[in-house]
């Protein structure tokens, strides 16, 4: 379920509302997800989960790769999945880390929710 939800979240063809529901505290990031949905690299990005390791009943470590047009762009990334409201979601720390990468490694200008996730 974790791998499937990650793949769904990172698939640009997934409707924004569904993607928001698969991100920890996703409502805080709805505008960012919506803006990215039709832009540049995000429009052709997908994710492939290669490993899931349970840490607790509500958290898991995830090893994943981001693919652009089917080609690996970021390989073997370490991420976290959290169980929130009965659904396994992409953890904020993972999403905010990707936003920082996209922002040239800078965390300035990222949503306030990212500061608490770091």
What general outline do the C-alpha atoms trace? globular
Strands side by side in the biggest sheet: 1-2-3-4
Which range best describes the helical content: under 10%, 10-25%, 25-40%, 40-55%, 55-70% or over 70%?
25-40%
- Rg, rounded, reads 13 Å
Number of E-type strands: 4
Task: Provide the residue-averaged pLDDT.
Answer: 89
Query: How many helix segments?
Result: 5
Q: What is the H-and-E element order?
A: HHHEEEEHH
Biggest pleated sheet: 4 strands, antiparallel
How far is the first residue's CA from the last residue's CA? Answer: 25 Å
SS strand fraction = 25-35%
Q: Which structural category fits the helices and strands?
A: alpha+beta
**Regions with pLDDT < 50 over 5+ consecutive residues?**
none
How would you describe this structure to a colleague?
The chain is an alpha+beta fold and 118 residues long. 33% of the residues lie in helices and 34% in strands. The chain contains 5 helices and 4 strands; from the N terminus they run H-H-H-E-E-E-E-H-H. A 4-stranded antiparallel beta sheet has the order 1-2-3-4. Strand 1 and strand 2 form a beta hairpin.
């Amino acid at each position: 379920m974790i791998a499937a939800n990650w793949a769904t979240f990172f698939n640009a063809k997934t409707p924004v509302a569904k993607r928001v529901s698969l991100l920890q505290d996703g409502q805080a990031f709805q505008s960012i997800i919506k803006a990215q949905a039709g832009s540049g690299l995000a429009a052709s990005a997908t994710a492939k989960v290669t490993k899931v390791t349970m840490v607790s009943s509500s958290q898991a470590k995830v090893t994943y790769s981001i693919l652009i047009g089917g080609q690996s762009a970021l390989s073997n990334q370490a991420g976290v999945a959290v169980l929130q409201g009965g659904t396994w979601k992409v953890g904020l720390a993972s999403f905010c880390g990707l936003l920082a990468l996209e922002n040239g490694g800078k965390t300035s200008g990222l949503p306030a929710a990212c500061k608490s996730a770091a």
